[in-house]
Automatic annotation (TrEMBL):
It comes from Zasmidium cellare ATCC 36951. Its cofactor is Zn(2+). Signal peptide: none annotated. This is alcohol dehydrogenase. InterPro entries: ADH-like_C (IPR013149), ADH-like_N (IPR013154), ADH_Zn_CS (IPR002328), ER (IPR020843), GroES-like_sf (IPR011032), NAD(P)-bd_dom_sf (IPR036291). Pfam families: ADH_N, ADH_zinc_N. Keywords: Metal-binding, NAD, Oxidoreductase, Zinc. Its EC number is 1.1.1.1. GO terms for cellular component: cytoplasm. Belongs to the zinc-containing alcohol dehydrogenase family. Residues 23-361 form the Enoyl reductase (ER) domain. The keyword Protein biosynthesis does not apply. GO terms for molecular function: alcohol dehydrogenase (NAD+) activity; zinc ion binding.
Length: 364
């Protein structure tokens, strides 16, 4: 054991980390040093860290302008929570022992107009994503920027809460953005299709039900549909099994179609199928990010005056709201637990799509 940093906390010298090697696109469990914190940073002892679909982008080429994983191996993961071990000298507000979750963008200014929407849009810094280009959260001790941290309301279970910090806040933001876009429509009269009922979608269903919307879950996976039902979806459809699902959705929505659809999938065909589910002037909330550009029938978008909008995991002030709302409404991620040593097994399961909710590592 060695003493590291400002608070005299006893820490081991090294730790295990699930690291991605950009040279051969493999993952291995490596022994790495415990990070030393800078004045604006917090050292966190991670309780849970979970896999996000975006993590799979490391293993595939993309046309989204993202440069992922260059150079030396780095620790994967951008979705985690834990407790504060040490505070840098310039960190206000937080205290040692606080439970926090955090967002992963660093080297941004947090204050410019771009940073008010998403810190990747910073107009003055050169933002990086922890877990995508620099060390992320599949390691027990992580250093994070204090501006990325949000206190977790007491009573929330840290062992299953990791997904809240990407999937949860993304689902929350996409739902609140959709509800805002539909201003003037009674939530209880509002039909929203959740396209993709996995990691993001199972939370999206919960947030929509908290707003008392009527929810139609759509997925190709029977497991994901079962989860959507369990979380309160009013109807669920598997387009591969039910060739008539578009007509059925029209019928249950009074012949008009849904007011909105939120797409959480990374599938271009799933996006292309959405305008047919929407009523005139409906909202298509773009949330999941396919590796390739989207394709739509312009006639459908134009004639029906479909509103195509974007939503994302957002910034820390929205994360704080997400936590308050989730705590108030008892919204919880479904996390299947793995050990760090089972990382490859967890990754393979994520790739297969044969899982419910989120997959993650819980540290003892
Ligand atoms: Zn993510
Ligand atoms: Zn900025």
């Amino acid at each position: 054991m060695a003493t590291n940093g400002t608070n005299g906390v006893q820490l081991p010298a090294t730790q295990k980390a699930a690291q991605f090697n950009p040279k051969d696109q493999t993952v291995s469990i490596n022994e790495i040093p415990i990070p030393s914190i800078k004045p604006h940073e917090i050292l966190v002892k991670v309780k849970s860290a979970s896999l996000c679909h975006s993590d799979l982008m490391l293993f595939e080429s993309n046309e989204q302008g993202l440069t992922l994983g260059e150079g030396e191996p780095f620790t994967m993961g951008h979705e985690a929570c834990g407790t504060i071990l040490q505070l840098g000298s310039q960190v206000p507000t937080f205290q040692s022992g606080d439970s926090i979750g955090f967002l992963p963008i660093i080297d941004c200014c947090y204050d410019c107009p771009g940073c008010q929407i998403h810190n990747l849009n910073c107009e003055t810094g050169s933002p990086k994503v922890q877990g995508m280009t620099v060390d992320g959260y599949f390691q027990e001790y992580v250093a994070i920027h204090w501006r990325n941290a949000a206190k977790i309301p007491s009573g929330m279970d840290l062992t299953t809460l990791a997904p809240m910090f990407c999937a949860g806040c993304t689902a929350f933001n996409s739902v609140t953005d959709t509800v805002a876009e539909l201003e003037g429509v009674e939530p209880a009269e509002t039909w929203v299709a959740v396209v993709g009922c996995g990691g993001l979608g199972h939370l999206g269903v919960q947030y929509l039900k908290a707003y008392e919307c009527k929810v139609v879950g759509i997925d190709l996976s029977p497991d994901a549909l079962e989860e959507a039902k369990a979380q309160g979806a009013d109807f669920v459809f598997n387009p591969q099994v039910d060739g008539d699902y578009v007509a059925k959705i029209k019928a249950i929505t009074g012949g008009r179609g849904c007011h909105a659809a939120i797409n959480y999938t990374n599938s271009v065909p799933a996006y292309s199928s959405i305008p047919a589910l929407l009523r005139t002037n409906g909202v298509l909330m773009v949330t999941g990010i396919p590796q390739r550009p989207l394709q739509f029938n312009a006639m459908e978008i134009s004639m029906n005056r479909i509103r195509v909008r974007g939503s994302n995991n957002g910034i820390t002030p929205r994360l704080v709201k997400c936590l308050e709302f989730s705590h108030k409404h008892g919204i919880k991620p479904h996390l299947t637990r793995f050990k760090l040593e089972q990382f490859q097994e967890m990754l393979d399961l994520m790739h297969s799509g044969k899982h419910k909710g989120r997959l993650g590592v819980v540290f003892d």
